[in-house]
Amino acid sequence: MARQVSIGVLISGSGTNLQAIIDAIEAGKLDAKIEVVLSNQADAYGLVRARNHGIAVEVLNHRSFCSREDYDRAVIAVLQARGVELVVLAGFMRLLSPAFIKAYSNRIMNIHPALLPSFPGLRVQQRAVDHGVRFSGCTVHFVNEECDEGPIIIQAVVPVFADDTGETLAARILEQEHRIYPHAIQLYAESRLKVVGRKVLVDRPGKDEKQALVEPPLEE
Ligand code: GRF
Prior knowledge:
CATH topology: Rossmann fold
Bound molecules: 5-O-phosphono-beta-D-ribofuranosylamine
Order of helices and strands: EHEHEHEHEHEEHEE
Radius of gyration: 18 Å
Strand order of the largest sheet: 3-2-1-4-5-6-7
Number of helices: 6
Strand content: 15-25%
Helix content: 25-40%
Distance between the termini: 44 Å
Structural class: alpha/beta
CATH class: Alpha Beta
């Protein structure tokens, strides 16, 4: 049974993942309430998206703080004051301090535009194209102390074509991000995620043992 989970969404930019989460909630597909959208950038377009849907926003400029720890303490204070249970990073371009991760242990999700553990870090769509991989995709994971390293909740795979650029691949991946992020949050709301060591066990119906993607496809 799903309960309504109180979430806080942290952004730095355009907020298309935020929009996908808002749309899923409004469509009745996601049992969550966005208590606050917090940005470290005052001009993040995601703030406009939030306001358009009557969601509370907060801007905390990291440059006004002496240290990462001070900044994170202020962010945590906002989240706790709003009763946030699950922190959703959606293009938040900052590393979190260990104190932040401890305060919300296994209650911080992030989405990354590559198939982790391949291509952690930045500019990952371009790096996937440059490397010549046949598949890339996106990963939703719980956040731990290491960057892009935490237990994986869900991944989506897309093909990479010879004529792809970083931009065309990013667009293909983003479409899948918008599908899997609301779903990951819904799995959390339904209490179907259990973190065991570095694995996330998902309470799920069946599995397709023959599932495989091949690129270029086999010509049988
Ligand atoms: C996405 O590609 C996400 O995977 C990465 O940052 C980007 C955010 O995009 N973490 P948006 O702001 O949600 O449009």
